[in-house]
Description:
Elements: H1 2-9, H2 38-51, H3 58-72, H4 79-95, H5 105-111, H6 113-128, H7 135-150
Helix pairs in contact: 1-4, 2-3, 3-4, 3-6, 3-7, 6-7
Amino acid sequence: MLWALNHVAVANISQFGGRFRSEPIYVGDHKPPHFNEVSDWMDRFISTVQENWFIWTPTELAAYGLWRLNWIHPFIEGNGRTARAACYYLLCVRSGKLLPGRKIVPERIRENRHGYEEGLRHADRAWDAGHLDFTKMEEYLAALLTAQLEDDGLPYQGNSCV
């Protein structure tokens, strides 16, 4: 499913959609795992989601997914887009339904990148110190989800609306 999400996310910008990267990549100050380790890290990612499916809240699962996919940076292109799509997928599936609201969480992330980037940095620093802590990302997503749910049913006002 993640390969398919990535393939769609980069359909108009790359012919390599849906493939794990096979060369080094650098993302700002973040150095993702070596490309030879991507499959192992992705197996660990999937296992962590499965093991915590009924333990973590929907926003915790989504926050973990959003951070971890960005941290692994498994694809050649479209990692952020794929991570945001997977985040929303986890939110909806764990909640048992498509969540109502005119503007969904991935759109809200795109419009409010500061909280997104801060959540990623916070989780990265915790991981570097030997801890799994994505609480800032979870708080950020919970606020975006609340805003999404609160604007359910409001009249559409174009791109400039909340």
